[in-house]
Amino acid sequence: MRRMLTAKLRNSTGVLNRFTGVLSRRQVNIESISVGVTEEPNISRITIIIDVASHNEVEQIIKQLNRQIDVIRIRDITDQPHLEREVILVKVTAPPTKRAEVLAIIQPFRATVVDVAPTSITVQMTGDAEKSEALLRVIRPYGIKNIARTGATGFTRD
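^ that's the sequence the OP posted. Answer follows.
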């Protein structure tokens, strides 16, 4: 079961290691992790996507993480109205004869071309994981040379 957790942590050395260590000890798979400084320079926000077996397991993980001295707050926002985004860069095989076709296919996704080479183009798109997967499905037949994803980041809506 895919769960999205957000946390505010003190921004200091070793905090991320201790935070992920709790998940590692519980043998929880981290699908995505995104960390950045908040509006306060000494506080970081972490967004983490994990795959767990049950809701009880998520509650136990949250309790353990809240006991960490550098964790200010952690919440499971999966079932709450929230914003979720990730950036994906995809290098697609696109000889000049196929470029117009590839450009037409990426347009509904509001993807943009960020680099052009003689035999390929690099496309950038922002959206949730489902949108990223949908983009990959439609451009896969053209040949994907490389993919880079930032991982999801997000927070609850007001």
